[in-house]
Amino acid sequence: MRLCTPQPARHASPTVKAQALAYLLFERPDLDRAERFLIDFGLVVALRTDDAMYLRAAVGTPYCYVIRQAPRPRFVGIGLALGSHADLLRIAGLPGASAVEPVHGPGGGERVRLLDPSGFVVEAVYGCAETPGLPRRAAMALNTADAQPRVNTTQRPPIHAPQVVKLGHVVLEVADFQATSAWYSEHFGFVPSDVQLLPDGSPAVVFMRLNLGDTPTDHHTLAIAQGIGPEFSHAAFELVDVDAVGVGERVLRERGWTHAWGIGRHILGSQVFDYWCDPWGDKHEHYTDGDLLTSDVPMGQHAVSREAMSQWGPPMPRSFTKPKLTPSRLVQLARTLRTSPDLSVDKIRTLARLFG
Fold this sequence. Notes:
Elements: E1 20-28, H1 31-41, E2 44-48, E3 52-56, E4 65-69, E5 74-81, H2 85-92, E6 101-102, E7 110-115, E8 121-126, E9 166-174, H3 177-188, E10 191-197, E11 203-209, E12 217-218, E13 222-226, E14 231-238, H4 242-254, E15 258-265, E16 272-277, E17 283-288, E18 292-293, E19 300-303, H5 327-339, H6 345-355
Parallel strand pairs: 1-4, 5-8, 9-13, 10-19, 14-17
Antiparallel strand pairs: 1-5, 2-3, 3-4, 6-7, 7-8, 9-14, 10-11, 11-13, 12-18, 15-16, 16-17
């Protein structure tokens, strides 16, 4: 494949190396509806006030999902956990960054707020108090042709909302692909695991992992996709095993929520996945059995296509990636074509042919 544009790359000396995706930030007009969906999805309310809600997973962090009351639904941005107060001060020295300020949510700590090149809020956080993990069931023991650990015991996973173990990753669509992916590498140390390429060799999606040295980390904590403007694509939450993914599908379907895609297994990352839409159409993914990589693994390059999204399961529906061309989005598209160095009419046609 001809590579005619620069590919995502790790930065030799990043400002800091983020340690975790700490939380997501949303605005919603109806906290009650948001709470019903997210509890059915498997999160737990850690704190709710008149105008905000914090939800947590089973791991020992006080929250991973923040919602603030607002007139219109909106994805705001992400929180990234840092490894030291010195790292927080380094981020505070970046152009456009806020001063170090206290975090008023559960667990406290300090943060620095800034915007990425696509306009998403990034809150760099440090010092948030650890909280005890929530009790959760162990993964089911599976009998295979090569090993049979389960004898005289049946498989009966509990039929209730599956417990989310942790926030896994977030996927963002952006117009300024090169600047945005390079910014996360330069300032937070993200390492590209795999990039999907368009037929002309230009990058369409990059899957980026944390740089934790020899400590294995998820195949991607952040993925960035070429789009026509800054949009939330989806967020993914890890479950304990495949049975939890299957039970989640049953529970969410029985409770009337909208299914987006699944169950299947991804190619890049290998996760067994299932996607659901919240009351405002934003996609939330259950997953399990994802790949883990250390920092020394080089970036892979792959052709992008609808078929490249899963190994098995139902094909990715066209509704999964096709944007709603509202009047405001058409205005945004016209503006982006004038200003973004990464987007052109030909590229839009190619993306529409592959995914439209």
